[in-house]
Amino acid sequence: MKCPKCGSENPNDSVFCVSCGERIKEKNNSKKYLVALIIVSVVCVCTIASTIVLSVLYTKKVNEYQDLTRERDSYKSSYELVLEQYKDLNIQNKPSKEELDEIIRKQYSE
Ligand SMILES: [Zn+2]
Q1: C-alpha separations of 88 from 60, 82, 84, 91, 93 in Å
Q2: Contact of 78 with 107, CB cutoff 8 Å
Q3: Which residues are within 8 A (CB) of 18 and not within 5 positions of it... i.e. 6 or more apart?
Q4: Which of 66, 78, 85, 83 is nearest to 106 (CA)?
Q5: Nearest to 17, CA basis, from 4, 30, 32
Q6: What's the gap in Å between 22 CA and the centre of ligand 1?
Q7: How far is the CA of 16 from the centre of ligand 1 (A)?
Q8: Per-residue pLDDT, 23
Q9: Assessment of whether the complete model's pTM goes beyond 0.70
Q10: Any residues with CB less than 8 A from the CB of 104 and at least 6 apart, and which?
Q11: Whole-number Å distance between alpha carbons of 61 and 57
Q12: CA distances from 100 to 5, 44, 79, 97, 109 (A)
């Protein structure tokens, strides 16, 4: 390895020049440092990006779950309401569960 300052030959693993004391390994080290910095940056960016993506997906799933829960509750309450109405009317031929489902489905589709 040649010294950039005085041009004298040095062993390949030397950090400083044996004749003038100039730092030889600096360029190599800064390259390694740059590569390490890039790797760390990429890992950081990936971590942040995946955190954002996961939190967005999680929020989406939570919202979907809440919507489904609301839908189920309103369906359940309307089903109970229809049952209650039939009870109040004291109808002899009570509709079957399937017929009630059909009535509720019609109400929902309107
Ligand atoms: Zn030198």
Answers
A1: 42, 10, 6, 8, 13
A2: yes
A3: 8, 10, 11
A4: 78
A5: 4
A6: 5
A7: 8
A8: 86
A9: no
A10: 75, 78, 79, 82
A11: 6
A12: 94, 56, 8, 5, 14
| pLDDT recorded at residue 15 | 86
C-alpha 37 – ligand 1 centre gap (Å):
29
Alpha helical stretches, state H, the chain: 26-89, 97-109
Q: Which residue has the higher pLDDT, 36 or 101?
A: 36
31 CA → ligand 1 middle, Å: 21
Nearby residues of 60 by Cβ (< 8 Å), 6 or more positions away: none
At residue 41, the pLDDT reads: 97
